[in-house]
């Protein structure tokens, strides 16, 4: 197994375990076993658990951005279709059997108060989403206020779906987004 494959196996196993069980609940021995590597190899790739968490969050960030952009790019040509595609993406995610909420919110809740670096990574991820929404809304002729409102709807839907276990939050957020989009773009 190459170093890249080993690293990917570790991050994949860690991402799955942390997402299902929580960051604090997963020990290095359990992770080593799930990744199929020795403890020595695990620590050779990632000197600390914090390094693994950072790697998992970086990988999750890339996957999130790629999935979201693909969904928006595949939407119809209208501003409304592209802006509501964000909520269609959330709906698919919330409906997945393994949905356990936002990995970044989960990390912040477990580790953000004691690890400023993890808190910063979470803030950077959330800021990146807000910037993506701001750029997308501006491209479609919408206001900064609309971008902030859509971002808040998406973030709120993530927390609501995770806590309630019901993917309906995405549909409800999308309905609210449609009202905001229609009103904003009509007056723009």
Q: What is the overall pLDDT average?
A: 95
Got a strand count? Answer: 0
Rounded to an integer in angstroms, the radius of gyration calculated over CA atoms is: 18 Å
Shape by Cα distribution: elongated
Major sheet size, sense and barrel closure: none
The helix-and-strand class reads: mainly alpha
Helix content: over 70%
- Given the structure, what is the number of helices? 9
Q: What is the H/E string?
A: HHHHHHHHH
Distance between the termini: 56 Å
Low-confidence stretches: none
Report the β-strand fraction as a percent range: under 5%
Main features:
TetR family transcriptional regulator, 80% helix, mainly alpha, Homeodomain-like_sf, 188 residues, 9 helices, Tet_transcr_reg_TetR-rel_C_sf, HTH_TetR
Your description of this structure?
The protein is built from nine helices and no strands. Helix content is 80%, strand content 0%. With 188 residues, it is mostly helical. The model has no long low-confidence stretch (mean pLDDT 95). It comes from Microbacterium suwonense. It holds the Pfam family TetR_N. Keywords: DNA-binding, Transcription, Transcription regulation. InterPro entries: Homeodomain-like_sf, HTH_TetR, Tet_transcr_reg_TetR-rel_C_sf.
């Amino acid at each position: 197994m190459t170093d890249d494959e080993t690293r990917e196996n570790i991050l994949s196993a860690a991402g799955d375990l942390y997402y299902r069980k929580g960051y604090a609940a997963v020990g290095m021995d359990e992770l080593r076993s799930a990744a199929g590597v020795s403890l020595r190899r695990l620590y050779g790739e990632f000197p600390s658990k914090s390094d693994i968490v950072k790697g998992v969050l970086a990988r999750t960030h890339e996957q999130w951005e790629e999935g979201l952009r693909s969904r928006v790019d595949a939407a119809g040509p209208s501003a409304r279709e592209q802006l509501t595609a964000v909520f269609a993406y959330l709906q698919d995610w919330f409906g997945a059997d393994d949905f356990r909420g936002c990995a970044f919110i989960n990390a912040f809740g477990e580790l953000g108060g004691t690890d400023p670096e993890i808190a910063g990574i979470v803030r950077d991820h959330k800021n990146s989403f807000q910037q993506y929404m701001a750029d997308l809304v501006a491209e479609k002729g919408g206001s900064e206020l609309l971008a902030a409102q859509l971002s808040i709807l998406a973030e709120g839907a993530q927390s609501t779906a995770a806590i309630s276990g019901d993917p309906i939050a995405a549909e409800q957020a999308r309905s609210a987004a449609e009202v905001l989009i229609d009103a904003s773009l009509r007056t723009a």
